[in-house]
Every structure is written in C-alpha cells, then in structure tokens.
Write a structure and sequence with these properties.
Blueprint lengths: L22 H6 L2 E5 L2 E4 H18 L7 H21 L9 H16 L2 H8 L3 H26 L6 H10 L7 E2 L2 E9 L4 H20 L5 H8 L14 E2 L5 H8 L10 E3 L2 E11 L2 E9 L5 H19 L5 H8 L15 H6 L12 E2 L11 H7 L11 E4 L5 E12 L2 E2 L6 H27 L2 E3 L17
Antiparallel strand pairs: 1-2, 1-13, 3-12, 4-9, 4-11, 5-8, 6-7, 7-8, 10-11
Helix pairs in contact: 2-3, 3-6, 4-5, 4-6, 7-15
C-alpha cells in the first residue's frame, strides 16, 4: 500500500528477549560491553548467537566464525548505530511498533502454549515482556534507519562500474546464472466491471456497520482485509500523503479523525479508510482492502480466449507480436511485441528510469515479491525456445487476477559477467561494494569518536573489525 524505500539490513538482530527479572539470574548475568550509553549483557550475546546458529541451520549454511564473536560484533554495531541515531536526532517512523510488538507477543505465547507458560519461561510478567520487546524493536528501527541514512546517499557512475569490473579477477568473475527472455499476452476477466461492483457493495455494507457502531473498523479489517495491515486491524504507519498512492491520499486528506471514507479505488483494489489522527505532515490511518472476486466461469472465460489466440499463433494465422498488440491487456508489453520488462516493478516503487530497463530474468526473479510471478516461471521451464504455453492463471504485481500465455524468446546460459551483457547487475554489485566501503569508513570514524568498552576477557574474540578493541 505504501510506496516503500528499500533499505539495507543492519544486522541479523535477534528478536528474543534478553532481560531477566529474577534476582538470582541478574547476579549470574553481566555486562560484556558498553557502547555510548548502551550496555550489552552476556545473555543478549548468548541469545543472539543461538538465533544466528538456528537460522544458519535452517538455511543449510555454516560459518567458520565463532557464533558468540559474530553475535557480539553484531550487537556492538547495532548499539553504535542506535546511539549515533540519537546523537543525530534521526527521525524514525515507529507508527507500527505496537502492532509489531503484539505480533511478536502472539507468536511467543503460541510457542509457549499460554501466557502463564510464557511468563514462566521468561521469568517475568507479560507487561514486562511486552516492554522489553518494544525497546528492542525500537532500537532496531533506529539502527536500521541510521544505516540507511549513510548508505542511501552513495551513488555510482559508469566510470566507477567499469573500474570495479576491471579490478575483478578475470578467473573468478561473478557467474550470471541462466536467464530468461520471454513475451506474454494477458487478459483480465471480462466480468471485471461486475466484480468491481460486487466488491464496492461489500465495502459499503462494512462501512455501514462501522459508522452505525455495530462493529469496530479494526475488527472488520482483521476479518476481511487482504492487505498485510489486516493483522494490525488495518492500521498503518504514520506517513506523509506523498507516501500513499494518489486516490488514497486524496481521500485521506479530506477526512477528520474518526471519520470513514467512501469506497476508494486504487491500483491495489478497493478501500475504505479511517483517519486515526494527523500530526504535522504525517497521517495515521487504518484501511480495509478488498480485490474483486470472480466466479469459476468468469475465470475460465479468458483462459479459453487465450488458448484460442495461442492456436492461431501456432498455425501462423497471426504473429505473437501482432496478437499482443491486438489482444493483450498489459500496457507495458503489448506495444513491444509482448516482451516482458521490469517496468511494472520500477513504477511500483516510483523508481522508473529507462536506463534501468531489464528484459532478462534470473530464476530468482520469479516469485517472492520480486516482480515476476512463479506461475510465469513454471510455464517457461516447460517450453523450448519459440514455444508458446497453454493459458494459465496468475496475478499482476499488486495482486489483481488475470490469465496469460507466454512465449519463451531466449534462454541465456550461465556465463561470467561482462560489461556488455550484464551492465545493470554489475552496476548493482559495484554500488553495493561502494556502499559497504563507505559504511565501513563511517563506522570506523564513529568507533574512534564514541565511548566503547569491551570487557578484557572478550577482547581476543575473532572480530571482523579490529577497531572495536581500542588501544
């Protein structure tokens, strides 16, 4: 819903609770290090190390580094970022903090079996558990925002990309995995108008129940909204109007606290919105999102139409390119012979730039919110170059149901990266490398300027950055 800016992950910070309440355990715990005004307890490091080990095990990954040393260094970095964020008065959006805390609490209670069992496991009351978790999540938000403040300002030029490429050992150049170039023809259900009307009527019924006091907005959101915010009763982070898509922002601007909007249509579907409050330029609201739902017959109809179009193409009655221009509902590809690009993804994140256009997709680019559906990949991997798939159902980037056929245009085998064929991927690698170097230099300066103390018995651990131990 909100146009999000992607930031680098700060550290693999644990969400487990690290404060004990019983006097005996406090006596057993001790401070391992101090960064600025923040201390790191031995229990914090142990829990972080255990979490790192568990996640590596789940991912099938092993490391030569000692988990305790890696965990302590991760926490040192997090504390440094957090303290510097406070020094710099970095603004952090913590509007969804309560929802995140409750989500974590719910998972902990489910894992323990009950609130009583969780309190016994953590040796503290539920209100104390909630407060500790809130502080942890808030600190992580500050740390992540601080790192993004540093790295987001880093840019790179074509000359730097070329120099980065020339520095790489030619015998160990990055290998670009197999890539797919493909074309598509898409069709939305013809009954979209009727389905949209049904959706509007459902939302109007919900609105009526809310404004007449028969039910709470948050309850309806949890029950029916298809947006990720449903878990938090439809509540979203306080955000400036520019952070919402236009129709949503326009409706939000007209609301007073507590008011519920009429039905609003955006590219994501249909919404009703309730303004919670506004402070300055930030609007705090909740919403319910619904998308049109189709009957089985309504979904089958475009599949039949596309299969008929595919048959015409296979019989050479029409070319795929002409069929895409004539029949496809996809505005991005129909005028380009049906060739699929990343334009939809770039526009979704308000980052469109013609030079960033990509028509080659790795297997990892399909599914998991990476822009191209897993259904596309499942169809493509069964095709030979030049073949056309049977019609299949899928969704666009924002979750709208559609049907499509795809044509495999080219398979580019795995190969060492080259400036000519893989510039965009090399540019991303070069930018990441530069961001890492700039960030490391920034960290070292802050280490020098900030008070950092590591207890003597932990100073010989295998830290990647040796500057943590001051002479």
């Amino acid at each position: 819903m909100i146009k999000k800016i992607v930031s680098l992950s700060v550290v693999a910070a644990t969400l487990f609770l690290g404060v004990v309440a019983q006097k005996r355990q406090v006596m057993l715990d001790k401070v391992v290090a101090v960064v600025g005004g923040s201390s790191i307890l031995h229990s914090d490091v142990v829990r972080t190390a255990n979490d790192l080990t568990q996640r590596r095990r789940e991912a099938g990954y092993t490391s030569d580094r000692d988990a305790f040393a890696e965990a302590l260094e991760a926490l040192l970095l997090q504390k440094l970022l957090y303290n510097q964020a406070l020094i710099d008065s970095v603004e952090v959006n913590t509007g969804d903090l309560s929802g995140r805390v409750e989500s974590q609490i719910s998972r902990l209670i489910e894992d323990a079996g009950s609130i009583t069992a969780l309190e016994k496991r953590q040796n503290m009351q539920i209100y104390h558990i909630r407060e500790v978790l809130r502080r942890r999540l808030e600190e992580q938000s500050y740390s992540s925002t601080m790192q993004n403040e540093v790295t987001s300002k880093v840019t790179i030029t074509p000359g730097e990309v070329e120099r980065y490429y020339k520095r790489l050992d030619k015998d160990s150049l990055p290998i670009i995995a197999k890539q797919y170039v493909y074309a598509q023809i898409t069709k939305f259900p013809k009954s979209m108008v009727a389905a949209k009307q049904r959706t509007k009527e459902r939302l109007l019924e919900m609105r009526e129940r809310i404004v007449t006091g028969k039910t709470k907005f948050s309850t309806m959101a949890r029950m029916y909204s298809v947006d990720g915010s449903a878990l938090n009763g439809g509540e979203m982070e306080p955000t400036a109007l520019a952070g919402f898509v236009q129709p949503f922002a326009d409706a939000l601007r007209e609301l007073k606290p507590g008011q519920v909007s009429e039905v609003v249509e955006t590219e994501f579907g249909f919404h009703i919105i309730q303004l919670i409050d506004s402070r300055g330029e930030l609007y705090h609201c909740r919403h319910i999102l619904l998308r049109p739902i189709y009957t089985v017959d309504e979904m089958i109809e475009p599949l039949k139409e596309l299969d008929s179009i595919a048959d015409l193409i296979r019989k050479d009655s029409i070319t795929f390119e002409a069929a895409a221009a004539k029949f496809s509902d996809d505005a991005h590809s129909k005028q380009n012979g049906g060739i699929v690009t990343n334009h939809d993804l770039l526009e979704h994140y308000n980052a469109f730039d013609a030079k960033l256009t990509a028509t080659k997709f790795l297997e990892e680019d399909f599914g998991m919110g990476r822009g191209k559906s897993i259904e596309d990949y499942n169809a493509l991997r069964k095709l030979q170059v030049g073949e056309i798939s049977p019609a299949f159902q899928s969704q666009d980037l924002v979750g709208n149901n559609l049907s499509k056929i795809v044509k495999l245009v080219e398979i580019i085998p795995a190969h060492p990266a080259s400036l000519k064929d893989d510039y965009l991927r090399l540019e991303a690698m070069a930018l990441s490398d530069k961001q890492s170097r700039v960030f490391d230099e920034w960290v070292n300066k802050k280490i020098e300027a900030m008070y950092i103390h590591v207890e003597p018995e932990y100073r010989n651990l295998d830290f990647m950055n040796k500057n943590w131990i001051k002479k």
